[in-house]
């Protein structure tokens, strides 16, 4: 079915080449305005053809670049997920108390979260962790089967933390009045990289060590002060989702 069409296209291409050749010969032989017009038209045609070919090549190069960027992003996501899973598996091996719960509501401007738990009441300060192993906050108060949770994005929340790839340096993770997280009080020699993971360091001896908290989204450096990092919390929307309240025994 496609053979006649292929022959027609081949014939049309041959005809176009013949016509161009005749026009080029005519432009070379004839003189005067006709010569000028033909030469200008043919020159413009070949120039346009060259530009079209360059545009096509540029488009192909851009397509290849986009594919390479996408593959690199996929690799980074896979690496991040593996690191988080390793952290979570490490924490679950420790001797800790666990109470299942659900986050069910928020509370006013202070953005305290309300959790309903089952089983033993967790102690004040116990970690509240998402099902994926991300730190949400700490137990602020307990009444009956209801717990108020102070989230890591709550105003003036403070916690001992560290960079996963540089575990020998403890730092302070703190939220400002607007809920933005920062990692500060690091030694000046520490090199902070974007997308680096931040985990709990258990310096306060309550929250388990190694809980994933945030990733670095920006770095602030100043020769007069120690380096600081702006952080992106790892937990997102966890309303009505299972959570765990954990603490060291």
Automatic annotation (TrEMBL):
Keywords: Cell shape, Membrane, Transmembrane, Transmembrane helix. It comes from the Bacteria. Coiled coil: none annotated. InterPro entries: Cell/Rod_1 (IPR042177), Cell/Rod_MreC_2 (IPR042175), MreC (IPR007221), MreC_beta-barrel_core (IPR055342). Pfam families: MreC (PF04085). The chain crosses the membrane at residues 12-30. This is Cell shape-determining protein MreC. It comes from candidate division CPR1 bacterium GW2011_GWA2_42_17.
């Amino acid at each position: 079915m496609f053979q006649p069409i292929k022959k027609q296209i081949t014939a049309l291409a041959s005809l176009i080449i013949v016509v161009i050749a005749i026009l080029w010969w005519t432009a070379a032989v004839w003189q005067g305005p006709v010569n000028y017009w033909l030469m200008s038209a043919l020159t413009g045609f070949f120039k346009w053809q060259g530009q079209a070919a360059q545009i096509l090549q540029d488009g192909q190069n851009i397509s290849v670049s986009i594919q390479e960027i996408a593959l690199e992003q996929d690799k980074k996501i896979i690496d991040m997920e593996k690191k988080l899973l390793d952290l979570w598996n490490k924490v679950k091996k420790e001797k800790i108390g666990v109470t299942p719960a659900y986050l069910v509501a928020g509370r006013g401007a202070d953005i305290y979260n309300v959790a309903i738990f089952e089983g033993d009441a967790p102690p004040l300060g116990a970690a509240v962790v998402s099902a994926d192993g991300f730190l949400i906050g700490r137990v602020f108060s307990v009444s009956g089967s209801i717990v108020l949770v102070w989230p890591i994005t709550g105003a003036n929340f403070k916690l001992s933390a560290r960079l996963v790839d540089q575990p020998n340096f403890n730092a302070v993770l703190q939220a400002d009045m607007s809920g933005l997280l920062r990692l500060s009080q690091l030694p000046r020699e520490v090199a902070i990289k974007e997308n680096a993971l931040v985990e709990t360091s258990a310096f306060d001896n309550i929250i388990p060590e190694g809980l994933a908290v945030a990733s670095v989204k920006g770095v602030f450096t100043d020769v007069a002060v120690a380096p600081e990092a702006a952080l992106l919390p790892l937990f997102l929307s966890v309303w009505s989702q299972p959570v765990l309240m954990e603490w060291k025994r």
